[in-house]
Amino acid sequence: MPVKEIPYMRSLFLMDNAAGLLTIKDKILYILVVIFLLTFYPGHMPAVNNVALGLLSVYCFFFYSTFREKYYLLRKRKEVVAMTLFYLLHIVSAYFSKDQAEGFSWVVVRMPLFVFPVSLGLVYIKQALKERIIWVFSVITAFTLLICTVWSVYHTISRQDLTLLYNDNLTILTDKQSIYIALLVNLAVFGFGYLLAIRSKLITNKWLVYGCLFILLVANFLLASRIAIITLYGSIICTAIWYAVQQKKFKLLAMVVAGVAVTGILLVSIFPKTLNRFRELKYTNYEYTHKGVESHFDMVITPDQWNGANIRLAVWSCGWELVKQHPWLGVQLGDKLHRLVDVYAAKHFDFAYESRRNMHNNYLDILVTFGITGFLLFLWGFLIEPLRHCIHRKDFFGILVIAAFMLSFIPENYFDRSMGNMMFAFFIAFIVSYREPPADPAHLYK
What we know:
Layout (H helix, E strand, L loop, with lengths): L6 H6 L11 H15 L7 H19 L2 H10 L1 H18 L4 H10 L2 H8 L7 H33 L7 H4 L7 H20 L8 H17 L3 H22 L2 H21 L4 H5 L28 H18 L10 H11 L3 H6 L6 H31 L3 H13 L9 H16 L13
Helix pairs in contact: 2-3, 2-8, 3-7, 5-6, 5-7, 5-18, 7-20, 8-10, 8-11, 10-11, 10-12, 10-19, 12-13, 12-19, 15-16, 15-18, 18-19, 19-20
């Protein structure tokens, strides 16, 4: 069917009436964002995605706005300075590491933490472009999960193996870990919810959006990420409570809570294996010298296994010992994993030693690497200051996105993965970019 006959497709291709609100520069930026997102999900395309990232960043930095405009925004967005300093701390730390090669390899992996703030974070994106970027991200994410689900269902039927529906098996086409995709699923749900709430003109077919939300809700459960499931349903309930209190619509709150409960019961009934991920939380005791096997969502959960809960508690305990030894400046970027593995060896924690487990906590990783100094710089620049502005401006999309990352950082180390750095830096810079300056845009840079 031709694109022009599908109204919701018109907005994706800048063929709708609302596209007239965008300037040529806005349209180019939108196209580059779309290319970045389209190359982000497919597996085995890191080089292409890096090129897309480079094109997007170069355009934002050199062409979208003048350096005078960037200087003005830099004065208003002090968090960008903190983000830049935090990344420069990586370079300094890598230089002073005993293993400099290891240190500078992390500098490269974490480069998006610098590139996005100084490019996308120093432009001003107006409401029309903001909505369109949120729209295209949410649609691409829903479409990606639809393809992944159809692929998994096909192989589940052909191989008679229900485990192919769950966890990393669901995201095998993307060649990415399910826990990262689960977070992106949540952000897409927040995006659709935001556009519905503000009655965006981009939504010309609500049933399309409801269909996308259905796909994303099912995918969220099949991906079996505990923190993603808790974040999504917790966000829905918290938002409903806030709205009910503000509007005094407590019957609506009761309906939402009941709906969440019914949805949860249905999903558990249809896809019971996800529940195993939560059963692990009953068994948090551990002994470093224990030789048990690691649990899996398709196994019967028993107390003698290593599982997602007690592994993390054991690893965090080892990491905290390094924090106590080097509280202010950390152990340096190139040495963090070496030092952590040394602690594993000293405690005869063979299970973690043999697999060279990372910190499994983004906050703890930063504390170990850079000490309290670097940790506070990270918190203020990337989380607290952007969140403060979101709260002040009642930017609920931004609040939910930042809160989702803050919670996701507890069980996983996002900065140890190129994908984790890229998605976090992009969204934080995007949230900063659409913050309206406290002046008339027509006279913004005079």
